[in-house]
Structures are given as C-alpha cells and as structure tokens.
Design brief:
By secondary structure, the protein is an alpha/beta fold. Helix content is 38%, strand content 25%. It folds into 3 domains: 186 residues, FAD/NAD(P)-binding domain (3-Layer(bba) Sandwich); 115 residues, 2-Layer Sandwich (D-Amino Acid Oxidase, Chain A, domain 2), CATH 3.30.9; 48 residues, no CATH class. The mean pLDDT is 91. The chain binds flavin-adenine dinucleotide (FAD).
Length: 394
C-alpha cells in the first residue's frame, strides 16, 4: 500500500503534524524508533502556557504548574519574577509522547514504535522508506529530531554552527521538599562557573527534578558533566536546595540553536521541529516551536494533496510560511545568544540581568511571554555601551 504521509519521528513536531494531517482525512503513519513514541526524550520538560493554549493540551499532563522563575546570574545575586497566573508547567516527556500519540490515533493516524528508519529514496511517484519493512508514501514529514537523517539528505553541507550540548540529571526528591524548596518556580542559573556559554536549570516536577547544564558545543572544552556535578555539589545556592536529592538518571543530548535549517523542503519532503532547527537559540525552548512547525507542515501537505503537487517548487511555500511565523524570532534569538548567554564574560549579560527594569523582560522571555525583539530593543543600549568601552580600551 502507498500511504498518503509517513511522519518519521513521534515527538511533539511529528505527533502534532500527524494529528492535523489525520484530521484532514489523510492516511497517516508515524514511525518512531523508541519503545513508545518519544519515550524518555531528554528534556527539561517545561511547556509554556502558549503551547498549552494554542494546542489545547490537557492540563492533566502537567506534573507541576509553573507560576514564576528565579534567575541567578552572578554568585549571590538573583531575582524572582512571580506572575499572577500560570505561565506553563513541567511534564514528563514519556507521558507527553503517550498523550500526543493518543490524540493523533484518535484522529485516525497510525503510530508504530520501535521502527527505525534507516534509508529514504525519492522515486518518481512516491518515496520509499526502509525500516523493519519497506514503506511507500506520497509525502514524508521528517520529524526525526536534531540528528535527523532526512535533514542530512536535504542539507548535506549544513554544519550547524550553533549546536547546543546538554547534560541532565533526573533527581528524585520528596514532593513536600520540592514544594518547600522550589514551589511553582523554574530556576535558571547563569555564569562561567555554571556553564561555558550557556546556563544551568532546575525544573521541579511531581517527585523529581530535572537538573541540567547546557552550553554551545563549540565552547565546551572540558567534560560538561563535570560542570553538572560541580553545580549539584558546590553551587552556593543550588547545592543546598538539592541536598538529599538522588540521581536516578543521567542523559546527554544535542539541541539545535542556530535558527531555521537552511533547506526545509524538497520533492515530497518537509522537515519539522528540531530537524528544521525550530528551537529558541537563547532559552532552548523547543516543544512549542516544534508543534507550531508541525501544524504549518500539516497545512502545507494538505494543500499539496488538494493541488496534487508534491514538487519542490510546490512545497517551497512551507519554507516561506515557517520563516514568516518563526524566522525573525529565531534569527534575533541567535543575535541575543551572543550577548546574553555569555553573561559571565560580557558586561552586556550582567548589565541586562542586574537592571530591575530588564529583569521582568528576562522572566517573560524565559517563560515565552515576550518576543525577542522586545528584549532586543532594551538590550541595544547595553550592547552599545559595551562596544564603546571596548573600543576605548583597545
Ligand atoms: C536537555 C534538554 C532540555 C530541553 N528542555 C526543554 C524544555 O524545558 N522545554 C522545551 O520546550 N524544550 C526543551 N528542549 C527542546 C525540546 O526537547 C525539543 O526541541 C523537542 O523535543 C523537539 O521535538 P521534535 O518532535 O522535533 O523532536 P524529538 O522530540 O527529538 O522527537 C524526534 C523523535 O524521532 C525519533 N527518531 C529519530 N530518528 C529516527 C529514525 N531514523 N527513525 C524513527 N524515529 C526516529 C526519536 O527517537 C524521537 O522520538 C530541551 C532539549 C534538551 C536536549
């Protein structure tokens, strides 16, 4: 049989895409290589409120509601922003995967786990995929994450300048202690002692905490796990808050942080989610953006079926729509990445975070309530001041 669409990868991008495709009446198959779709995907797990609202996600998937953030930016200096409404919540990715898969299935999609797609060949009238069997399909949505084999096919020369590298512990703690020490806040830690060009985070869930360190891969010269261990054991604030917590899992993964992948479509193929580079270059938020790209891809694929045009030219509208919706947000994020994430070595980062007026904007950015451009306008004076100071010094 020839499927209408095969979605490779059952993460948030692939599952939102298939749910929508199935609702348009298309014959959709999702192939994911894990035991269950997206099972144990490494993630801090924070879903922002805009993701919950825009995709009508059931709030029962939240392990903990989030109403604020604490940002620690220099030893002993921090600020907390509390909101008068929920700004998101923390989830377990296995549970999110199950939930999104069930939504796709109830719309009519078929989801198959433990199916690793190894190869893909574009034929004249269909695409052939090799997994445990050979599949044929009219269209492919490549939602296979940061190490996407489909992205490599479309962008063989794309060297991904800004890949992030993350290490994370899942640590167990009694729920009462989590309530007492973290409440309904996610915590972000900046500074050279915490991460080489990046940040650390503690995201509380029901009975465990996601505790991680991320950095730009190009800046990681030492073992990043050493930073994580140091953060957990020796950070003056974090080590006390984590006292008594037990490591139950350790993982490491890459995350794309350089904005949209240059080519996101080809004959009969579109790239979605991390495969298309839809992650915030500055906060690392990816679930919301991947769902947005999944929905756009579904609309474009549906249009292709109506026009019976699966050509590269016909599908070029996908790149245009993706750029229009996410392009500038992600592009300016890359700019800000330079001046914000390296807070430890730049007066800009410190200047921004120690300015009371900016702190609310930083909080808003971290919980996805404000666009980068708002931050950018306020960051420019710090950037200019820094430039002038450096010019005088030289
Ligand atoms: C440490 C860390 C912390 C993060 N924290 C957050 C956070 O708190 N909030 C947030 O919004 N984002 C966060 N992100 C980013 C977020 O996890 C990703 O952006 C998001 O998961 C992307 O979704 P996706 O569907 O594109 O890809 P993925 O979730 O990676 O899903 C891809 C799926 O495809 C499968 N697959 C891959 N190759 C194949 C193949 N060849 N055949 C079949 N299946 C395949 C994979 O197993 C996987 O299930 C974090 C990322 C990291 C690394």
């Amino acid at each position: 049989m020839i499927w209408d669409v095969i979605v490779v990868g059952g993460g948030p991008a692939g599952l939102i895409c298939s749910e929508n495709l199935a609702s348009y009446g298309l014959n959709v198959l999702v192939l994911d290589d894990r035991d269950e779709p997206n099972m144990d995907k490494l993630c801090g797990g924070m879903l922002t409120e805009r993701a919950l609202r825009e995709f009508s996600l059931d709030e029962n998937i939240l392990e903990r509601e989030i109403w604020g953030v604490t940002v620690s930016y220099r030893e002993g200096e921090s600020f907390t922003i509390d909101y008068d409404e929920r700004v998101g919540g923390n989830v377990h990715r296995t549970e999110l995967g199950k939930y999104l898969a069930q939504r796709a299935v109830s719309n009519g999609a078929e989801v198959r786990s433990k199916e690793h797609v190894k190869k893909l060949k574009i034929r004249q009238d269909y695409v052939e995929l090799s997994a445990s069997e050979t599949y044929q399909t009219k269209m492919v949505a490549g939602a296979d994450g940061v190490n996407s084999i489909i992205k490599k096919l479309l962008n063989p020369m794309d060297d991904r300048k800004s890949l992030g590298f993350c290490v994370q512990y899942l640590m167990s703690m009694k729920p009462e202690l989590i309530d007492e020490r973290f409440g309904k806040r996610n915590e972000f830690y900046y500074g050279g002692d915490v991460s080489p060009f990046g940040y650390a985070w503690i995201f509380p869930k029901g009975d465990c905490l996601a505790v991680g360190v991320g950095a730009l891969l190009s800046k990681v010269k030492e073992n990043l796990k050493t930073y994580l261990e140091n953060f957990v054991k020796n950070h003056p604030v974090a080590s006390q808050k984590l006292e008594g917590a037990k490591v139950i899992r350790f993982d490491a993964a890459l995350v794309p942080l350089s904005g949209l992948t240059s080519i996101n479509y080809s004959d009969r193929i579109v790239l979605v989610g991390d495969a298309a580079g839809t992650v915030s270059p500055i906060t690392g938020e990816g679930m919301y953006y991947s769902m947005v790209s999944g929905k756009i891809a579904a609309d474009v694929i549906n249009r292709a079926f109506h026009k019976n045009d699966f050509s590269e030219k016909g599908l070029s509208v996908y790149q245009k729509k993706l750029k229009k919706r996410l392009g500038s947000e992600l592009k300016w994020g890359v700019w800000l990445q330079n001046y914000f994430l390296k807070g430890q070595s730049s007066n800009v980062g410190i200047g921004i975070m120690s300015d009371k007026g900016m702190q609310k904007l930083v909080g808003d950015l971290l919980v996805g309530r404000k666009s980068y451009t708002r931050i950018l306008v306020r960051a420019i004076p710090y950037w200019l001041k820094n430039k002038i100071r450096n010019t005088i010094r030289d």
